[in-house]
C-alpha cells in the first residue's frame, strides 16, 4: 500500500468519525513551544534556587535531595530527547 493510499484511507476514517461526533473536529490547543520553554526555564530556575537554599539549611540531607532531583531531571531530559529523536526522521542516507 502506497503512502498516498494510506493517507487517503486515514482521511476517510477521520471524516467518518468527525461526522459521527463533531466534537472530534475541534482544534487541539497546544502551548506555543517558545512559551513552554520559557515556563520550563523559569520553573527550573526557581526549583534550583529552592534546592540551593535547602542545601544550606539541611546540609548533607539537602545535598542528597538536590543530587536526587538533578538525577531525575537528567533522566527525564534523556527520555524526552530519545522520544523526540525516535519520532523525527533521521538525516538522509543513514537508514
Principal-axes shape call: elongated
Q: Compute the separation of the termini in Å.
A: 21 Å
Helix share, percent:
over 70%
Instruction: Compute the CA-based radius of gyration.
Output: 22 Å
Q: What is the residue-averaged pLDDT?
A: 86
Count of DSSP strands: 0
SSE order, one letter for each helix or strand: HHH
Enumerate how many helices there are, as a single number. Answer: 3
Q: Major sheet, described briefly? A: none
Uncertain segments: none
- Fraction of residues in β-strands: under 5%
Structural class of the helix and strand makeup? mainly alpha
Can you tag this structure with a few keywords?
elongated, mainly alpha, 95 residues
Amino acid at each position: 500500500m502506497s503512502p498516498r493510499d494510506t493517507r487517503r484511507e486515514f482521511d476517510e476514517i477521520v471524516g467518518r468519525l468527525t461526522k459521527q461526533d463533531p466534537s472530534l473536529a475541534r482544534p487541539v490547543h497546544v502551548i506555543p513551544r517558545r512559551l513552554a520553554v520559557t515556563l520550563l526555564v523559569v520553573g527550573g530556575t526557581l526549583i534550583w534556587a529552592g534546592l540551593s537554599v535547602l542545601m544550606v539549611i539541611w546540609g548533607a540531607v539537602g545535598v542528597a535531595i538536590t543530587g536526587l532531583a538533578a538525577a531525575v531531571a537528567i533522566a527525564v531530559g534523556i527520555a524526552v530527547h530519545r522520544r523526540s529523536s525516535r519520532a523525527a526522521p533521521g538525516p538522509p542516507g543513514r537508514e
